[in-house]
């Protein structure tokens, strides 16, 4: 199967009227914000996007994205592989639209640009960034971090101090 690049921008209304589907790839190097967090940007993101109109007559862009990336383990600073997978459903809404209250919770909102188009690559990039773990770490059994990094110091027993309210206790007994 030939890998087709996903378009950068798309008119969601026209695509939904045609019931368009896009199945292709986006090079990781094109996703600059995601690439900043990766060790290697040579891969591709596999993307599927379906454009449709739902029961409420809302334009819907739904689909999924999948990619394998390499990030740095926060514990041992060694490379680690992650498999990112996300599913999404967007509905375009103008920024001046007051119908935001009537959009179902299952849809995220995307604001089209001045030409009525949405940036598909930016939508996919946003979703993949949200699936990245905040602090990626290897499983402890596979992590090469020294055991000393997992301890936070030695707790020293403090000498027992007299209770400052002991005097009040004695007065209460009298």
UniProtKB/TrEMBL annotation:
Q: Does the record bear Ribonucleoprotein in its keywords?
A: no
Q: Name one GO biological process term.
A: ribosome biogenesis
Keyword set, alphabetical order = Ribosome biogenesis
Q: Which domain of life is it from?
A: Bacteria
Q: What does this protein do?
A: Plays a role in synthesis, processing and/or stability of 23S rRNA.
Family indicated by similarity: Belongs to the DUF177 domain family.
Q: What is this protein called?
A: Large ribosomal RNA subunit accumulation protein YceD
Q: Which organism is it from?
A: Alkalimonas amylolytica
């Amino acid at each position: 199967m030939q890998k087709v690049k996903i378009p950068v921008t798309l008119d969601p209304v026209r695509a939904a009227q045609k019931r368009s589907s896009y199945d292709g790839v986006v090079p990781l190097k094109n996703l600059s914000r995601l690439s900043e967090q990766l060790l290697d940007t040579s891969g591709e993101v596999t993307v599927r996007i379906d454009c449709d109109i739902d029961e409420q007559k809302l334009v819907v862009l739904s689909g999924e994205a999948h990619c394998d990336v390499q990030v740095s383990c926060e514990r041992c600073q060694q490379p680690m592989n992650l498999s990112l997978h996300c599913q999404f459903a967007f509905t375009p809404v103008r920024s001046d639209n007051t119908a935001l209250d009537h959009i179902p919770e299952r849809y995220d909102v995307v604001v089209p640009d001045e030409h009525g188009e949405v940036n598909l690559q930016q939508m996919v990039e946003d979703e993949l960034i949200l699936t990245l773990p905040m602090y990626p770490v290897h499983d402890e059994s596979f992590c090469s971090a020294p055991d000393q990094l997992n301890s936070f110091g030695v707790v020293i027993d403090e000498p027992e101090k007299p209770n400052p309210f002991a005097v009040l206790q004695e007065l209460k007994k009298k």
